[in-house]
Amino acid sequence: MHQDLGVPIAFAGIITMIIAGGTILSSLASERITRRFGVGLVTAVSVAMTAAALVGFSASNSFWMLCLWAIPYGLGAGAVDAALNNYVALHYAARHMNWLHACWGLGASISPFIMSFALAGGDSWSSAYFIVGLLQVILTFVLFISIPLWRRVNPLASAAADDEADYGFGADGEAKRGHTHVPLARAIRIPGVVLILTAFFAYCALESTAILWASTYLVTDRGVNVATAAAFASLFLLGVTAGRFTAGFVADRVGDRWMIRGGFLAVAAGTVLLAVPQPNAIALVGLVILGLGCAPIYPAIIHSTPINFGRRNSQAIVGIQMAAAYTGSTFIPPLFGVISTWTGLWIFPLFLASLVGVGLLMSESLNRLVRRREQVRSTRE
Fold it and tell me: String of b and e for 318-349 (b: at least 16 CB within 10 Å)?
């Protein structure tokens, strides 16, 4: 792409930053937009925006056009993420949330094959973008037809009961239960929100850093050959996808708290194995375990949001969580790149371990806070 457009390859980072900025902004605005227009319409319009952007990418013959189309792409991606995740958290069980995010993994795995298919057939990169854009157009059509169905799904009984809880809004104690819109400033002041935002930030930073830097670490620091390193880096993503499909069968019985706790502990074990000096096979196995451990964390954090903070607040908080996720996944991998130039790539497992520690500490602190709140409620009753 950079050769066809006549720009340095580093300019890809500019496109990424524009998209990330759009996703963060639309995630933060998702609560107000979704309350006004409904999750079905927001999802359909958001997918339409990404479809238009992908088709626009395919027709772009200059760098500034890619930058222009990156704006609706980012805005659409952030809005659909926040709206759809909260909808599933409110209306479906934990297994459905895991399977939803496993389907993300399938899509992420298929997209490189679409690009390879286009290039192998003698077409340019623009053909691959057009194919995916066309698929998005078809999906948009289906979503618009299905808008009436979104209103027919009943909320989960366990989540509906949470409307009766007093979740508090900080030092002023201003609950305002009849208030339909939850401003971001008030949502952040709800006890425990900062904890889960920090945990989510740490997890997404960990996942993105592992995806971007694992193969480089294996080749540069461990001496693994390039083909093997690339294969096991792919197994990390496959581990995330397969782990989410598998987690869907046990998530309802185990519960979100234990899925998050177990996931972080498995990631910690994988990180330890990744740091073992010899033989390299142990490090490769550790990378796969790291992917399997990552699998249930993201879905469980989202699915537990209505229970931890109340249905009335969940859309606003999920939107902030999405913004925290995009911030962590966008800025932390480059930060590790800067740090590793000073220290060397040997620090990779230690860097991941620090993110695991932050995520586990914050999530367990939230669990203690929620347990205390439940004890207070039971005492009052």
Answer: bbbbbbbbbbbbbebbeebeeebeeeebebbb
**C-alpha distances in Å from residue 336, one per residue of 14, 24, 210, 233, 341:** 18, 21, 10, 17, 9
Residue 158 placed within a domain:
no
Residues 6+ apart with CB under 8 A from 361: none
Instruction: Establish how many alpha carbons lie within 13 A of residue 151's alpha carbon, considering only the half-sphere containing its beta carbon.
Output: 8
**Rounded to an integer, what distance in angstroms lies between the CA atom of residue 150 and that of residue 41?**
9
**Which DSSP symbol is given to 224?**
-
Residue pair 299/262 in contact by the 8 Å Cβ criterion: no
Q: What is the DSSP code (8-state) at residue 345?
A: G
Q: Phi/psi of residue 219, each to 5°?
A: -75, -50
CATH at 33: 1.20.1250.20
7, two tokens: 């720009």
Say what the pTM is: 0.84
> What are the tens digits of pLDDT across the range 63-84?
999 999 999 999 998 888 888 8
